[in-house]
Every structure is written in structure tokens, then in C-alpha cells.
Design goal:
The chain has five helices and five strands; from the N terminus they run E-H-E-E-H-H-H-E-E-H. With 198 residues, it is α+β, with helices and mostly antiparallel strands. Helix 3 packs antiparallel against helix 4 (103-129). The relative contact order is 0.20.
Length: 198
């Protein structure tokens, strides 16, 4: 996967070529992505470091299949935590009362609680590896002397990155061509400086 840097205004205004950011195929839709980025030094403060996070959002072109895949992965992984809690509650409700020796209920209770533990472990691994943010990722950085922030988009298809860079090169060439030509320097005076001054 490739990466490209764009200005935040470009991300917010959907200013991208119509090529899917994930697959590189012609885009069929635009999907909104929300990004947060925490500077590396802010991690020294632990959880309080999130007070220094930067947020932005914008639209990227996708195919319908890529958008559905991103939604499916996020929903399935986000559903593992509530599912683990439901399995624990079901195991507690099915558990036989004290003194009852119903082996079927014991096995079912153990299976439900074990399933809940397994779902919680899957959720923790998914959180650790960032699978909840499947799809294009971004890092936001401030540029000194600029009002606009720079957004580095990562996890993109190389065809999309090449198209964005080509678009940026075309815009830079248009801007360069639109710059006024500097006026010619006036000719040098035939008189030496200061000799004929009044």
C-alpha cells in the first residue's frame, strides 16, 4: 500500500480523481472518513496525550464493494465486545442453581462463558492492531507558516496515489503559468550615483 500527502482543504472538498483509494478501479461513490492523529510526543502523557489529538474528516473515492468491505469489517469487529457481554449474561442466566447437577446446563454455561472470553480476546487483538480503522488511514501534521494542515493518507492503492500526484503536478503547473512575469529591470543610469544629485 502507498501513501500521499494532501492539504486538509483538498480532503474536505473531495478534490481527488475518481479512482478508488482502496482498489485502484474507477470510483463509484464517495465515502466520508474521520481521522484522528496524536503527535508522538503526546504519548509520554499516557491517556492524557489524547488531549493533543488533531481531528479531520473528508471524502475519498471508493468502489461500492470496497465501501461494503470496510463497513463489514468495522461492524463485525465492533460487535465482538457487546457479543462477549451477551454471551456472559446468557451463561449466567443458564447456569444451574447451587446444588443442581444438570450436566447439560453446566456444559452450555461453560461454552457460553468461554465464547464470551474468546470474543473479548478477538476484540482486544483487533484493537491492538487497529483493525477497527480498516481502510485508508491518515496522519495529520501542522505546517509552520500555513493555515492549512497537511494530511498524510496511508494504506492507499498505488494507482490512486499516482493519480493524486498527477493532479497535484497539473495544479502546480497551472499555478506557475498563472504567475505574472516579473517586470524587466530598468536600464542603468549613465550618470554615476551621487555625482549629479541636487
Amino acid at each position: 500500500m502507498a501513501k500521499v500527502s494532501v492539504w486538509e482543504t483538498q480532503l474536505r472538498s473531495n478534490d481527488f480523481p475518481p479512482i478508488c483509494a482502496v482498489t485502484g478501479k474507477p470510483a463509484e461513490m464517495w465515502r466520508r472518513f474521520k481521522y484522528t492523529s496524536v503527535p508522538a510526543w503526546a504519548h509520554l502523557f499516557g491517556w492524557a496525550g489524547f488531549a493533543f489529538e488533531s481531528r479531520t474528516s473528508g471524502y475519498l473515492p471508493l468502489t461500492r464493494a470496497a465501501s461494503k468491505r470496510i463497513t463489514l469489517i468495522r461492524v463485525v469487529l465492533a460487535g465482538t465486545i457487546p457479543l462477549s457481554i451477551l454471551l456472559w449474561l446468557a451463561g449466567g442466566l443458564i447456569a444451574p442453581p447451587n446444588g443442581d447437577t444438570d450436566s447439560t446446563r453446566d456444559v452450555l454455561t461453560g461454552a457460553l462463558i468461554l465464547g464470551g472470553i474468546l470474543m473479548l480476546m478477538i476484540a482486544i487483538v483487533a484493537l491492538m492492531f487497529g483493525f477497527f480503522n480498516y481502510g485508508p488511514k491518515a496522519r495529520i501534521s501542522d505546517v509552520s507558516g500555513q493555515r492549512d494542515r497537511l494530511v498524510e493518507l496511508r494504506g492507499l492503492h498505488p494507482a490512486f496515489v499516482a493519480a493524486v500526484k498527477q493532479l497535484q503536478a497539473q495544479r502546480a503547473a497551472q499555478l506557475q503559468a498563472a504567475q505574472p512575469v516579473a517586470p524587466a529591470r530598468p536600464p542603468e543610469s549613465p550618470f554615476p550615483p551621487g555625482k549629479f544629485s541636487f
